[in-house]
């Protein structure tokens, strides 16, 4: 059995599972969601919570965190930067297409310039000369494209040992994997790419993990932070201000009361 078959089977199974969960959420409703239209969809909380407990208190504590700490401590910083730049450079073509799908032609041109310059002068992305021209990295995922088109997040999911996600993001990640050049990368190089990005992201979380540990409910804390971050990305850093209807009604009542008084 080839690695390509394993990879395709894994991604196809993940997509089918995501679609199934999306349909499941559409067929079910809870009083909590009905009372607050802005509340994240979490019909699988009874399953997600044990998965989160395993992910944070076991997989992360005993594997992911120690591995990232060792990576940061023992791997030369310049080597780490080069590996991370090269891994992220492979995402540039997908960002180009995702920008174009949203009509962000300027951002697409910038990503194109970054990919061409860094892949040539930057030696396959190891170096980042494009930043010297002010072309900063602007990663765009297909999940964000779906969000801009009005597709909802779908149910919240916790993937064991991987962390928080949602149906929309899983579908988006599935599509992103089939953009060039990610679609032609073999199993082991792609595993290295994902591993480098994952280690750097876990290392970056070190300064915030105490917030998770100090929270009253780490599950709710991470879930809310996840959806806030996704919303921030979909609206390019300018998400709409959500107003609680009960607070708005109270404010309107007080305004009328003051006018009468």
Automatic annotation (TrEMBL):
<comment type="similarity">
    <text>Belongs to the MlaA family.</text>
</comment>
<protein>
    <submittedName>
        <fullName>VacJ family lipoprotein</fullName>
    </submittedName>
</protein>
<feature type="signal peptide">
    <location>
        <begin position="1"/>
        <end position="25"/>
    </location>
</feature>
<dbReference type="InterPro" id="IPR007428">
    <property type="entry name" value="MlaA"/>
</dbReference>
<keyword id="KW-0732">Signal</keyword>
<keyword id="KW-0449">Lipoprotein</keyword>
<dbReference type="Pfam" id="PF04333">
    <property type="entry name" value="MlaA"/>
</dbReference>
């Amino acid at each position: 059995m080839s690695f390509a078959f394993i990879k395709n089977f894994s991604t196809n199974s993940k997509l089918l599972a995501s679609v199934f969960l999306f349909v499941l959420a559409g067929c079910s409703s809870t009083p909590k969601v009905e009372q607050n239209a802005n509340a994240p969809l979490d019909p699988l909380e009874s399953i997600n919570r044990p998965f989160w407990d395993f992910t944070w208190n076991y997989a992360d504590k005993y594997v992911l965190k120690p591995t990232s700490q060792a990576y940061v401590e023992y791997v030369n910083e310049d080597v780490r930067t080069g590996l991370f730049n090269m891994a992220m450079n492979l995402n540039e073509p997908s960002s180009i297409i995702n920008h174009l799908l949203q009509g962000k032609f300027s951002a697409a041109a910038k990503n194109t310039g970054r990919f061409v310059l860094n892949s040539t002068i930057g030696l396959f992305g190891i170096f980042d000369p494009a930043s010297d021209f002010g072309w900063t990295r602007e990663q765009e995922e297909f999940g964000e494209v779906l969000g801009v088109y009005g597709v909802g997040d779908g149910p919240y999911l916790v993937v064991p040992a991987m962390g928080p996600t949602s149906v929309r993001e899983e579908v988006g990640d599935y599509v992103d994997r089939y953009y060039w050049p990610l679609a032609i990368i073999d199993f082991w190089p792609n595993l290295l790419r994902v591993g480098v990005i994952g280690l750097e992201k876990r290392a970056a979380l070190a300064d915030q993990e105490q917030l998770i540990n100090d929270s009253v409910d780490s599950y709710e804390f991470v879930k809310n932070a996840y959806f806030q971050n996704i919303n921030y990305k979909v609206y390019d850093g300018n998400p709409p201000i959500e107003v609680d209807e009960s607070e708005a009604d109270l404010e309107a009542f007080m305004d009328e009361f003051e006018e009468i008084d």
